[in-house]
What we know:
- With 66 residues, the chain is mostly helical.
- The chain is built from 3 helices and no strands.
- Helix 1 packs across helix 3.
- The longest helix has 36 residues, at 30-65.
Amino acid sequence: MHTLGIILIVIGIFYTYMLILRPPWVLNNFKVKTMIKMMGVKGFWIFFVCWTVLILGLGILFVNIY
């Protein structure tokens, strides 16, 4: 579980990087365009922030508990 926690933290840091810089290759992805069309731009970014917090939180939790 410790290894899973570290992997989740690394993924969470990568997601945070994408939130801060918003690289164009993220927004030009077909899946992202579909999600933006379904949820709207603001809804997509709220979802992305919540997903990032969840991944980072689980990673920190797994590292601290196990």
